[in-house]
Amino acid sequence: MSEIEVSASRKERLFRQYGELVSADELARLLKFPTADALRKAHERGQLPIRMIRMPGRRGVFASTLAVARFI
Prior knowledge:
Number of helices: 4
Largest sheet: 3 strands, antiparallel
Structural class: alpha+beta
Strand order of the largest sheet: 1-3-2
Order of helices and strands: HEHHEEH
Strand content: 5-15%
Radius of gyration: 12 Å
Number of strands: 3
């Protein structure tokens, strides 16, 4: 899916609220997981539809806001 296909208002709203990256806790709420631990387990099992990354010097995993907008 190209960036053009992503709803501009959805993308802008997500970028305004979360910036460039969405934390695991925020992503769990966006994707309606019952807890952040449930999201982390889905990620570990390879069942998460969005690629998560680790950042040096930061705890936890993050997702690109653009990837989240494309998925939603």
